[in-house]
Design a protein that fits this description.
The chain has 9 helices and 25 strands. By secondary structure, it is of the alpha+beta class. The chain is globular. Belongs to the peptidase U62 family.
């Protein structure tokens, strides 16, 4: 595997040469490899993921950003191609025109540092037959737990990203290994079927290749309940959201709606409410790539911004959107570590990382106590938001009835939550003490530009319209 850290010297020189003409220049290098395994009741599959390896050069003309990307790192002619690419990029910038309209980029304090996420057991050290044996054990355990299981599937994937960012003051390198495990079961009874999945994704190595016994049991139990579940009667109800359901709520409600590149396009209503109360005072909502070990964490974003927490909502007040360099520069907003690309061949956008509701101090039993009739929602499946109109729709597979302060065991499926985002957020009356984050998510920007995200929160009690 090519050691991309060796490109530091040439990239520093190229940045210096480009900045002899343009106000700002930077470079980002990516080298991502991985593997994916699948085992179910009928087939076994193992494949290497397509390698993503390349460099993108960025210049700023004083008014516009321009980029040049190329692959082929490690080939004999690569350095010559890279130099020629930098020269071509500067020529294009000159044709566009170098101007001064008062947009000055802060390159950050001087920093030359390497980062690496901890990995106890590198997956490359584990033979394929052992990995498949681990998947087989989990699959077999799932299949024997319930006679109605007609298929059990176990997915494993591991990626290892090496990234280098260079500008005039910074030379930053990071290694990000991610391991994901997912189990899915299909149950059948008569002409009805139910499909449910669970699992996790974390920064790290083969040490995360497991599905806990309690998770397997919960998967089979809840899939069995969904199998015979009717639809609920639409209406407004007292609800308790599980941490997973709180997570999809966080992601859809104030994730996309506070990506500041949407502010530039006037596609987000959130821009009008900065500094205003939009949620219950109990609500705190953050986005942070600095959470240790979480799937969407990193040490710096693709524009060299060091990882840190961004408090989007504080005590119910919309405080800060998430930004990339372009949106922060043009809107005069605080720059946050959310400039991310799908790969070196894709554009930078303001993107979520780990997005989550903060903790409160009310436990689950307290939330249940005075609900005369409502629902506990779990196993979210999908969500969508209209950032401009602030409408939201969350879809889930599991709504368990609450009567007189107790879960009854009666389950309804599927369930859809709809509403106006501030109404839902302002209806939150209790927040649990423990934040749980799910790492299984990927997020697109308009059905493309996919990046790794995660979301979560504690249990939430609120009022919601269900259908």
């Amino acid at each position: 595997m090519t050691e991309i850290k060796e490109l530091r010297f040439i990239l520093k020189n190229l940045v210096r040469q480009m900045e002899a003409t343009v106000p700002y220049a930077a470079a980002w290098v990516q080298d991502r490899v991985g593997e994916r395994l699948l085992l179910d009741s009928r087939e076994a599959r193992a494949e290497a993921l397509e390698r993503q390896q390349g460099v993108v050069l960025t210049v700023f003309t004083g008014r516009a950003f321009m980029e040049y990307a190329l692959n082929g790192i490690g080939t004999s002619e690569f350095c010559d191609r890279l130099t020629a690419g930098a020269e071509e990029l500067v020529k294009t910038a000159l044709m566009e025109g170098i101007v001064d309209v008062g947009l000055d980029i802060d390159p950050g304090v001087a920093l030359n540092q390497d980062f690496a996420a901890a990995m106890a057991t590198p997956p490359e050290q584990i033979p394929l037959r052992r990995k498949m044996a681990t998947l087989k054990t989990i699959r077999d355990d799932l299949q024997i737990r319930d006679a109605r299981v007609v298929n059990a599937t176990v997915f494993y994937s591991h990626t290892r990203s090496r990234e280098l960012f260079v500008n005039r003051t910074r030379s930053l390198y990071q290694e990000l290994p991610r391991t994901q495990m997912v189990a899915q079961v299909v149950l059948r009874e008569g002409d009805r079927t139910a499909c449910l999945h669970g699992g996790h994704c974390y920064l790290g190595g083969y040490e995360h290749t497991y599905i806990k016994e309690e998770e397997q049991g919960r998967l089979i139990r809840d899939a069995g309940r969904i199998l015979t579940a009717p639809r609920l009667s639409p209406g407004m109800y007292d609800c308790i959201f599980s941490p997973d359901f709180a997570g999809i709520f966080a992601h859809e409600a104030f994730g996309h709606g506070t990506e500041a590149d949407l502010f530039l396009e006037r596609r987000s209503r959130g821009q009008e409410y900065l500094g205003h109360q939009v949620a219950s005072p109990l609500v705190n909502l953050s986005d942070s790539p600095a959470l240790p070990g979480q799937a969407a964490s990193f040490f710096f974003d693709h524009e060299g911004r060091l990882a840190e927490e961004t408090r989007i909502i504080e005590n119910g007040v919309l405080k800060c959107p998430i930004t990339d360099l372009n949106s922060a520069l043009r809107l005069g907003l605080r720059r946050t570590p959310n400039g991310r690309r799908e790969s070196y061949a894709h554009k930078i956008y303001a993107r979520m990382t780990n997005t989550y509701f903060g903790p409160g101090n009310r436990d689950f039993e307290e939330m249940l106590q005075d609900i005369k009739f409502g629902y506990f929602l779990d196993h979210p499946s999908n969500g969508m938001e209209d950032p401009k109109g602030w409408g939201i729709q969350l879809e889930g597979l599991y709504a368990e009835e609450i009567r007189e302060g107790k879960l009854t065991g009666s389950v309804f499926s599927p369930v859809i939550v709809t509403g106006y985002v501030p109404d839902l957020l302002q209806s939150i009356t209790m927040v649990g003490p423990q934040v749980q984050i799910s790492g299984l998510g990927m997020c697109g920007k308009g059905h493309k530009e996919w990046v790794k995200v995660s979301d979560g929160g504690p249990f939430l009690r609120l009022k919601a319209r269900l259908g």
